[in-house]
Amino acid sequence: MSAIKPAGVGDAGPADVHGDRPLAPLWNFGRQLGRRGAHAGWPPFVAFLAGWLVVASRVPDGWGAAFDPASWDRNDSGQYLKIARHGYGMSTRCGGPTLPAPAIPGKRMCGNVTWFAGYPALMRALSATGVSMMAAGLIIAWLAWYLTLLMVWVLARPETSGFFAVGRRWACLLLAAVFPGQVYFAAIFPISLVTFAMLACVYFATRLPRRWPALAAGVIAGSAYLASVAVLPGLVLAFVVRWGRKHWTTLACAAAGVCVGVLAVLGYAQWAVGHWNAYFMTERIEYRVGVHNPLPALAARSRQLWPLPHPGTGRTIAEQTIVVWLVLALAVAGFAAGFLGGLQRESFFRRAKLRSFGRDHRASSDLVLLVAAVVGWAIPYVGGGRLSMYRAEALVILAVPLLRRVPAVAMVPLILRSTSVAWHMAPLFFGRVLV
Predict the structure, then answer these.
(1) Does the residue 14 lie in any domain?
(2) pLDDT-based confidence at residue 16 (cuts at 50, 70, 90)
(3) Which of 16, 136, 253, 351 could form a disulfide with 211 if both were Cys (CB 3.0 to 4.6 A apart)?
């Protein structure tokens, strides 16, 4: 007769409800995440504090106001708060005390359906615990900002060990802490939530393949911000090069999660205002967003960057764009270095090597991150209209883990410049200059 081991002794997991068999997969997955989180959690927290101090030091009413949720409620934050409190609303009577005047004369359509409902839904759920709606929005934003940095730290883990590899990893993390658009990570906006969800979606779809976490992260991303669809092309490419049914299923779950999140918001719009396409209608009519040739917009933007404008709002925004473009260029170089380095031992044209690339978790995640960052960066140029360029550029943070192959010394000027941009951008946000 075998002895019965007391509960809590040894490493056995919880018992299955149908017998004495342990729930090994779920238990082992939880333990694995716990070990990784305990080991990887403190560097992102240090970076979070550093990034928070940069933007909080610019709050107009001092350090005490930095902990007041009202200080972080600016412009579009009010729309998310309205959705959290009252749900979607759309009207043809614009220009009233609570609705903005129509942007295009003769077109009467306004409301809050232009803002996705995933973030407000989480705010409403958290407010059920007794915190105010505004405080709930800030808690979610700050927590998601920390989790974004955690995902950057995990994804930026280098292939080699040693002092210089650790330095490169820390450089990636510090750059992410002061990344362009950083003030929106700290404010009552869904930007930090969508960047965390997109990074987690890529992580669980490629680096640590898990179907349900990848699906859940995709749903959160898709329901929080439409630009999260930028991750879909990269997932499709990874699906093409990946080998193995398990990996295909995980990638499909991640892509399906993003689609389900977007469709859930459209379905809610149909239920709330009777128009599933209300978002696209208001974007087209009020903000003149559509499908445009991005080349003229890129050319016009390039002409605004050089020579740099005189010190002021225009110069700060231009410097942020330059930092983003440099990050993209370095990310492409980092991806190419990793890809070409993996091909040194065999010919590029050998099928065995292509299969090896398809089985490489790091290569797959790098591919998805690079494509998602490029597509996310291009969306404002393609959409045109009145899309916020400096807010959308925050999504390029997905490319930061690819900079783990760039020497840390070369990244120091980029970190310092990005810190300067964050320092000057924050007062523009608090002063309602940025929308």
Answers:
(1) no
(2) very low
(3) 253
- Domain-embedded: residue 385: yes
Residue 21 lies in a domain: no
Report the b/e string of 377-387 with b at 16+ CB within 10 A.
Answer: bebbbebbeeb
What CA–CA distance (Å, rounded) separates 119 from 123?
6
For residues 99 and 93, what is the distance between their CA atoms, to the nearest angstrom?
Answer: 8
CB 203 within 8 A of CB 241: no
Contacts of 176 (CB under 8 A, 6+ apart): 47, 148, 149, 152, 397, 400
The encoded tokens of residue 145 equal 């900002």
Q: How many domains in the chain?
A: 1
Q: Is residue 31 part of a domain?
A: no
Which residue reads 């917009």 in tokens?
297
Per-residue pLDDT reduced to its tens digit, 354-402: 444 445 677 888 999 999 999 999 998 888 767 778 888 999 999 999 9
Cα-based distances in Å from 129 to 94, 132, 145, 296 = 35, 9, 21, 49
Rg (Cα) of the chain, in Å, rounded?
23
Contact 197, 185 (CB under 8 A): no
pLDDT in tens, 193-236: 999 999 999 999 998 888 999 999 999 999 999 999 999 999 99
Give the domain extent around 173.
Answer: 42-430
Phi, psi (rounded to 5 degrees) for 17? -70, -15
Structure tokens at 316: 């700060």
Largest CA distance in the chain: 86
Would you tell me how many other CB atoms lie within 10 Å of the CB of residue 35? 10
Note whether 85 and 188 are within 8 A (CB): no
